[in-house]
Each structure stands twice: as structure tokens, then as C-alpha cells.
Amino acid sequence: MSQDPVELTRGLMSRTAELRRGFLDVLGESTGAPVPTVAQRAMNSPFVATVYERLWRPTAFYAASGLTHRAEQRRAASALHLPDAHRLLDVACGPGNFTAPLAAVLPDAGLAVGFDISESMLTRAVADNSGPQTCYVRGDARMLPFDDETFDAVCCFGALYLMPEPFRVAGEMVRVLRPGGRIAILTSYAPEAAAVRHLMTVAARSIGLTVFGRHAFIDLFSSAGLVDIEQQTQRAVQFVVAAKPAATAQEA
């Protein structure tokens, strides 16, 4: 008999969590987060959580990249080598519109953990995208409540540009990634042309978004010791994937 995904997830966590509305919550009533931006308030809205999966996310992403939602999922599963993974962490998972499809690609005993700070999004994730290989956790991605080297694959799609400390979050993602594991992010991208980059940056800042340049995450992953770093840019988005070097026999 397969293990309950909630209890399996508890076993991976470095902090205690209360089960609320079907998801594990390490924050309780107080988040300790800064005053949210316009974009962050939208992501915490029950209305946005309801329409996000079927309307907002597919439409906005297609306009920004030219890729369909299904094509994006296929690329993510391939880049993360999910058929060979056992534990996946989906940071800023929203309503689970990536977590559940990616969980379906994992081996039979695999587990996909969706992680988000929004109660509204996680409530929707539990209602719409739960399964025998999924569990959802509420917390602050700047301090992921998992031990070092816990997951075979870690991803964050379409959310880092919303966060107040995106590079700290990316560093946490690297920390919880196992040696030999793979990390993938999809986030904003500003072209090299100075005038275009300036206009995009000003517009994004007005609603609390960050637009990243070509080298931001390549440099971060490289400095963290990751290898096999690849980047694809399409219109206003970039997809970056990398691997943590496998442990040597002496290190193991």
C-alpha cells in the first residue's frame, strides 16, 4: 500500500506544520511578509485563484512566450528528468496547475510537493489538483521548510518575478536539491536592447514585478556550483535549467 502523501511530506519537513483545508501550513495566521504589491495581492485573491488555472495563466503565458500551457508542461517534465525522479518540489505552485500534471510523470512511488504562500491558491489546488502523489504546503519560499538535499527535482514557473527576494528564493531551491538533481525556472526576461529593457523594467516595477536580464540566473546557478546550465528565451520569458553535480563515491 502506498504511503499517504501528507505523512510522507511531513517526513521531509524541517518544521512542524498543521493540516488545514487539506494542505500543510507552517505559517499559521501570521506570514511575516512585507506589504504586498499590486501583483502579489492579485495572486492572493480568491477570484484570481478560481480563474487562474483555466484562463489567466494559459492566456498570459501564451501572449508572453508563444507556448501553450501543455507544451510548457512537456518541456518542464523533460528538462527535470521526472521519469527518473522520486521527489519533486514545485515552488509557488499556485492552484497546482503544474504540480498535478508533473506528478503524473513521476514513478509510481513518487511525490510532488506544491509549495505556495497563498491560502486561496492552495485551497484551489487541493480542490482541483490533488492526487495520490501530490501534497501541498503553505510557507514562505525565502525559508523553505525542508532539509538540505531533499528533492530530486525543484522548479518554479512564472512566479519569481512576483517575489520580494527572488534570488534568495532561488538559493533556497538550490539548497534543497539533491546531488544529481535538476532545477528549472520560468520567469521574466528583458531583451538586451537598452530601450526595450528600460521600458519593460519601468512598467513592471509600477505593479511590483521584476524583469530579469539574460545573465541573472545563469550567474546565480553557476556561482552555486550547478552544471549543465541551459537557457531558452522567448519574447518576455526565459526558461533556465541546471543540475547539481552528483556526489562522488568518496563524498557519498
From TrEMBL:
InterPro entries: Methyltransf_11 (IPR013216), SAM-dependent_MTases_sf (IPR029063). SUPFAM superfamilies: S-adenosyl-L-methionine-dependent methyltransferases (SSF53335). GO terms for molecular function: S-adenosylmethionine-dependent methyltransferase activity. This is SAM-dependent methyltransferase. Residues 89-185 form the Methyltransferase type domain. CDD domains: AdoMet_MTases. Keywords: Methyltransferase, Transferase. It comes from Mycobacterium florentinum. GO terms for biological process: methylation. The lineage of its organism: Bacteria, Bacillati, Actinomycetota, Actinomycetes, Mycobacteriales. PANTHER family: 2-METHOXY-6-POLYPRENYL-1,4-BENZOQUINOL METHYLASE, MITOCHONDRIAL, METHYLTRANSFERASE. Signal peptide: none annotated.
